[in-house]
Amino acid sequence: MRATFDAPTDPNAYRFCHQVRVRFAETDAMGVVHHAAYLPYLESARVEYLRSVGHPYVELRRSGIELPVVEVVTRYLQPLVFDDLVDVHVVVAGVRAATVELGYCLAVDGAPKATAVTVHAVVTGGSGRPVRSPRWLHELATGS
Amino acid sequence: MRATFDAPTDPNAYRFCHQVRVRFAETDAMGVVHHAAYLPYLESARVEYLRSVGHPYVELRRSGIELPVVEVVTRYLQPLVFDDLVDVHVVVAGVRAATVELGYCLAVDGAPKATAVTVHAVVTGGSGRPVRSPRWLHELATGS
Amino acid sequence: MRATFDAPTDPNAYRFCHQVRVRFAETDAMGVVHHAAYLPYLESARVEYLRSVGHPYVELRRSGIELPVVEVVTRYLQPLVFDDLVDVHVVVAGVRAATVELGYCLAVDGAPKATAVTVHAVVTGGSGRPVRSPRWLHELATGS
Amino acid sequence: MRATFDAPTDPNAYRFCHQVRVRFAETDAMGVVHHAAYLPYLESARVEYLRSVGHPYVELRRSGIELPVVEVVTRYLQPLVFDDLVDVHVVVAGVRAATVELGYCLAVDGAPKATAVTVHAVVTGGSGRPVRSPRWLHELATGS
Questions:
Q1: Helix (H, G, I), strand (E, B) or coil at C72
Q2: CB A127 within 8 A of CB A53
Q3: D77-95: b (≥16 Cβ within 10 Å) or e
Q4: Which of residues 82-111 of C touch B (CB under 8 A)?
Q5: Per-residue pLDDT at B31 exceeds 80
Q6: Residue positions of D annotated with a catalytic role
Q7: In the predicted model, is pLDDT for residue D126 greater than 80?
Q8: Residues 6+ apart with CB under 8 A from A111
Q9: CA distance C124 to C63
C-alpha cells in the first residue's frame, strides 16, 4: 500500500483542525522544531478528529481494532519554532478494504508550514490480522 | 522537491550500515517501536555515514552548511520491538543543484523491517539560503 | 544547588494549572506513559505559567535570559495512560540569587499521579553567565 | 520510597559503563541536549548493565518481572552537545525488599556532565504487584 494522496497546502481543503503548541523539548540545535516531532502532531490531530466524530481511539482499541501506521510522507515547507500555535488540519483522504489514508496540513496563522500523508492498516489488536475498514470510516471519506 | 527514489528492501543495495539498539523509551503501548522513533534512527545512520566518508556533520555545520530535512517518506513493513539490534542501511540516492536524497533500509537479522527516503536542502547555516551541493556529495552519489 | 522543596500531592497547594492530553507517542511497551515523557509536561506547564503572569518564555529569551534546568526530581505515584487529561499544577517554590525552584503535581480527575521539582539557573542566553533573578520571579515566590 | 544515594561525580566509583552518541534529535534550541533526553541514556545504560551481568531486561520481562521507575533525580552539571560520546557509568546503589536504587554519572572524555539516581519498584508484569527483589540483584549491590 502506497500513499496516493497529494495533501493540499490550502487549510480550507480539510475537514477538521486540532491546535498544538510547540514545546521547547521539540526544538533542536538549528533553533527550529525537529522533523521527527511533527509525527506526534499528526497523531494528536488524528486522535482528536476520531474523538470529534464519536469514535475515540481508546474505544477503537477496546473494540479490538488498531490503526498502525504503515506509511508516512511529510513535506517540510517552512520551519516551526518554539511556542508556535500550530493548526493541524486533517482529512480522511481515502478508505480501502483494509487501509485508510489521511492527509494533513500544518499551518501557523494561516501560513502552511508542512503537509503530510499517513497510511494506516486496519487490524485486530491482538493478532494484528487485517480486518475490513468499519463503515463509519468510509463515511468520513465520502463526506456523507 | 519531491522524493523520487524507491528505497529497495535488499540490504545489499546500500553502501553503508549503522547499527542501533532499540530503546525501551522508543516503544509504545502497542508493544512495538513508535513510528516517529524511526526518524532519529535514519538521522543517526546519516550522521555516521558522513563521518565514515570524512565529513562529520559537526564539521559541515562549522563550515556553514546545514542539511535540513525537507521531505521524509517512511514505509513500515514489520514492527521493531524493544532491544532489537537494527541495521540501518544507507545510500546517497541522488544529488541535485541544492538538494540531496538518501535512501534507507532498516533490517533485523537480515529481514527488512522498514524503508525510507529523506530529501535534504543544502543551505547556509545562518541565513538558510540554498547553496550548491559540495562536490564530495556528488561523488558519494555516483560512487566514483 | 539542590532541590529543597517537597512537592505536595494536594493540587490545592499550587498556584497555576495547565492541562495536557497524553499522546500515544508518549506511551511505552508497559502500556503506560514512559517516565521521560513527564519532563516535557513539566516544561509546558512552566511555559504556560510564565505566560499567564505576563512573562512569556520567548520574551525572556529575547531579553537575554535563559532558565536552564540544573536539577529534576520526579516521583511517579500512579501510571498515566494514553488519552489521560493531565492537570499539571505548578508553584514557584523558591527564588535565590541566581536560581529558581518550581514544584509540580500531576493529577487526573483530582487523583495525584506524580510530583516533581525542577531547579533552574538564571543565566544570560549568550555566555550562560549567572545573572540575578528578576524581581517579578521573587514576587511569584512570595505570592505578593 | 525516596532516593537516598548521592551519586558521585567520579567515574571510578561505578561498576559499569555504556557509551551513547548524542543524536541531533536530542538537542534543543539552546544548542545543547534537552534535559529530558538524559533519561533514555540512563535507561540504555541500565539495560546494557543488566545484559552484561547475564540478566537481559527482555528475559526479566518474560519471567514476569518489571522494574518501573518510581523516582528519578538528575543533576545537570555541564551541557552535553550534539555528537558527544557520553560514558554513562552505572552502579547498583542499594536493594531493598521490593525496590532497587541505581546511581549514574555521565561523562565526556572523563569530565562529569551529569549525575542521576533512579529508584525502581520490583513488580510482577501483569498485575504490577510488588515482589521480592531477586537474589542476583542483591549480589550486584553488595558486590559479592
A1: strand
A2: no
A3: eebbebbbebbbbbbbbbb
A4: 82
A5: yes
A6: 28
A7: no
A8: A78
A9: 9
Distance CA(A75)–CA(A105), nearest Å, equals 10
Question: What single DSSP character describes residue C54?
Answer: T
Model confidence pLDDT, tens digit, residues A63-89: 999 999 999 999 999 999 999 999 999
Q: In this structure, which amino acid lies at residue A32?
A: V
The rounded distance, in Å, linking the Cα atoms of B21 and A128 is: 24
What sign has the CA pseudo-torsion C26, C31, C36, C41? positive
Looking up cell 542539511, which residue turns up? B67
Q: Which residues pair with A111 in a beta bridge?
A: A108
Residue B5 lies in a domain: no
Strands C85-95, C16-21: parallel, antiparallel or unpaired by DSSP? antiparallel
Whether this prediction's pTM lies above 0.90 is answered by yes
Q: How many Å is the Cα radius of gyration of chain C?
A: 15
Look at D76 and C68 and tell me if their CB atoms are within 8 Å.
Answer: yes
Residue keyed to cell 494506516: A120
What is the least distance, in Å, from the CA of C73 to any CA of chain D? 4
Of all residues in chain B, the percent with pLDDT exceeding 90 is: 90
Full residue range of the structural domain in which residue B26 is found: 11-142
CATH number, position A125: 3.10.129.10
**Does any domain span residue A52?**
yes
B105/B6 Cα distance (integer angstroms): 11
Determine, for residues B82 and C29 on separate chains, whether the beta-carbon distance falls below 8 Å: yes
Residues in D closer than 8 angstroms to C7, CB to CB, are none
Q: Does C35 touch chain D (CB under 8 A)?
A: yes
- Tell me: the pLDDT tens digits for B103-141? 999 999 999 999 999 999 999 987 889 999 999 999 999
Q: Structural domain tally of chain C?
A: 1
Mean pLDDT of chain A, nearest integer: 94
- Distance, in Å, from the CA atom of A37 to the CA atom of A20, rounded to the nearest integer, reads 12
Whether B84 sits among the annotated catalytic residues: the reply is no
Residue C118: strand pairing partners:
C72, C102
Identity of the amino acid at A63? S
C23: contact with B, CB 8 A cutoff:
no
Tens digit of each residue's pLDDT (9 = 90 or more) over D6-58: 999 999 999 999 999 999 999 999 999 999 999 999 999 999 999 999 999 99
- Give the model confidence (pLDDT) of A107-144 as tens digits: 999 999 999 999 999 999 878 899 999 999 999 996 64
The alpha helices in D2-78, defined as continuous H runs, are 38-52, 57-62
How long is chain B?
Answer: 144
In a domain, B3, yes or no: no
Does residue D55 sit within a domain?
A: yes
Nearest CA in chain D to C121: D76
Burial of A77 (0-12, 13-18, 19+ CB in 10 A): middle
Place of cell 538528575: D74
Q: Is C47 helix (H, G, I), strand (E, B) or coil?
A: helix
Measure the CA–CA gap between C47 and C68, rounded to whole angstroms: 13
